[in-house]
Amino acid sequence: MTPMLEIKNLHASIEGNEILHGIDLTVNTGEVHAIMGPNGSGKSTLAQIIAGREVYEVTQGEVIFSGRNLLELKPEERACEGIFLAFQYPVEIPGVSNTYFLKAAVNAVRKYRGEEALDAMDFLALMRGKMKLLGMDEELMNRSVNEGFSGGEKKRNEIFQMAVLDPKLAVLDETDSGLDIDALKVVANGVNALRGPGRGIIAVTHYQRLLNYIVPDFVHVLAGGRIVKSGGKELALELEEKGYSWIDEKAGV
Amino acid sequence: MVEVMSDKPVSEYAIRVYLADHERSDKAVEHHIPPRIRALRRSALERFCALGFPSAKREEWRFTNVAPLANTPFHLARQAGAGHLPPGALDKAGVKGLGARRLVFLNGRYDTRLSSPGEMPAGVRIGSLMANLAHADPQAEGRLGESAPWHDHSFVALNTAFIGDGAFIHVPRGVVIEEPILLIFISIAAEHAVVSHPRNLIIAERESQVCVVESYYGPSGETYFTNAVTEIFAGEGARVGHYKLQREGDRAWHMATVGIRQERDSACEAHSAAFGAGFSRNDVTAVLGGAGCSAVLNGLTMISGSQFADNHTRIDHAQPRCESQELYKGIFDERARGVFNGRIIVRQDAQKTSAMQTNKNLLLTGTAMVNTNPQLEIFADDVKCSHGATVGRIDDEHIFYLRARGISFDEARSIMTYAFANDVIRRIKPAPLRVLCEQIVLAVQDVPADFIVTEEK
Fold first, then answer.
1. Which helix (H) or strand (E) holds B356?
2. Which A residues in the span 94-153 are in contact with B, Cβ-Cβ below 8 Å?
3. Which end is more exposed in chain B, N or C (fewer Cβ atoms within 10 Å of the end residue's Cβ)?
4. Among partner residues B407, B418, B454, which is closest to A142 by beta-carbon distance?
5. How far does B419 lie from chain A, in Å, by closest CA?
């Protein structure tokens, strides 16, 4: 079976400073991978590079997604190919309704795939189904994208967008940060509902807490721009117990 | 013949064209306009000649170079008829969904056939200024030249020297005209560069209400000059909405001044949306001449290529307990250049004044630029005034957010540009005009219904 995502010896830098020093990671369809690590270890950089953030320069290595060289694609092409990044800091778009924004996104993806644009009725039906899943208020749909949203609402909106866009690979960048336990459960339920044989998930997080609710198949520890340890879900518990200091020593940072 | 002074040497020939045209026009209007207006035209011509074209040495024109205009001979545009209009021009110049009351001006002159002022309540005048002057309407004659600063503004002086046609709107006491009155000004290409001087006069008497939308439009690729002046008088407790939509051709020169004079407890709004012209200068001056007035000044400029747009506003708080709110936003793409100068004067008597001014600018490229200059002059001590100016760019991270959802770079940029402009667009009250501005900023043909944002409570 070809893996869904294959990252080989990925080196990346920003403004001449190398942040990732050779990452290897393979995600097969149906798997959930957690990437944990201390602050500044390069977790978010990795997430953003997968989605195509152009401020990072890939200096070595490759990223293959469903057999395609991902690094050749623009961010919007990656999204259309089925990659979704749930942002750590979702952007506010004043004056543009959630509905409009999401419809523009859905129809951009559909166009890329050679499918007809959804009309207003079909789109509304799709949205309502997913809103239920995330316990979203319909009133939220007519509000400006993320404007005036609480931290929890923003994160929930990210997972809602993910549910509507139905990606093959979802990358969650610190989706748990800033959430209280109730909001965390809602977000985790939303993610779990999307787990399945057709989808891969990478959850980037600093804390083990999220992984109580989104139980990973694999856990990788990223430190100093390298994956220093990989294991099963029990590795997350070990980290919770011991903290990151022993990892730092191992990574030589 | 009067001598022309100028800060800079200008083409004698260009000036001679104005003077010769004035002489001809003076004879032509002799029997159509009252003696006072004819005298006003002559005084204004003398004033124009004394002022000359402004050079960059004058504070009000520091960043605005009019030398190419001063050196171009612009002939007074001839009267034109519907037959001279390129196909579709009238629709393009109008505002879809607006126009139950419509006045159309070709080369600055009223076109009866294309206009439909609509049913008018008793005493209301909506029509051609020239016709009303010819019929010796005392209102039309009486207020001209009172609120537009023709003594110290070269182009207002020039317009005043050529007072002829434009719109005349007079709403008597207590009358409310609900639907906006649309004024369409279309310039028509000629063999040589032409100028028109539309002159509009809007008088809203005590406790009346009126909304006027001016739309300026002309051909691309042609050098022509629109030199417009609108005077607005709002009587006690009157409500006036004024909107100016500028979509002139890409090589056009557009100079316009809106002069507002408000009496006690009146409320005026003056909105400007500037998208066209190679060079545009928009002056809005409001004198809050009675206690308890409110003035709202909004502006949106969006230009690209090598376009230039200058917005100068001046709010004069002359009386106590008045309120002014000003929001001007500019979007500059490619090599476009903008100027904003917002002056607020709070006179000694104007206690309990509240004046808020904001100017925000978005530069879409490294080559676009803007000069912004807020000026507060406060002579009263019990006032609440604020001003702020910003110049910024679209955050890469914002664009990335939209692209990461599958939206193309160009569309992402349009959406974020709209997000920047949205608050000033949302203040436009006539829905058809608001939708048109949304379409222009978003660069789309139709704005879908789901675009509408519900305000957060």
1. strand B353-363
2. 94-97, 99-101, 103-106, 108-109, 112, 120, 139, 142-144, 147-148
3. C
4. B454
5. 5
**The residue type at A216:** P
Provide, as residue numbers in chain B, all residues whose Cβ is less than 8 Å from the Cβ of A75.
Answer: 400, 403-404
DSSP structure class, residue B234: E
Residues of the domain holding B348:
82-396
Q: Is B345 helix (H, G, I), strand (E, B) or coil?
A: strand
The one-digit pLDDT tens for each residue of chain A (253 residues) are: 679 999 999 999 999 999 999 999 999 999 999 999 988 899 999 999 999 999 999 999 999 999 999 999 999 999 999 999 999 999 999 989 999 999 999 999 999 999 999 988 899 999 998 998 888 888 888 899 999 998 888 999 999 999 999 999 999 999 998 889 988 998 999 999 999 999 999 999 988 899 999 999 999 999 999 999 999 999 988 888 888 777 766 655 4
ipTM score: 0.95
The number of folded domains in chain A is 1
Which chain B residues have a beta carbon less than 8 Å from that of A148?
Answer: 456
Q: Which residues does B contribute to its contact with A (CB < 8 Å)?
A: 395-398, 400-409, 411-412, 415-416, 418-419, 421-423, 425-426, 448-454, 456
Whether the CA torsion A212, A214, A218, A219 is positive or negative: it is negative
Same domain, B364 and B431: no
Same domain, B370 and B324: yes
**Domain extent at residue A235:** 5-88+151-251
Work out the widest C-alpha separation in chain A, in whole angstroms. 57
**A156's tokens:** 């929930």
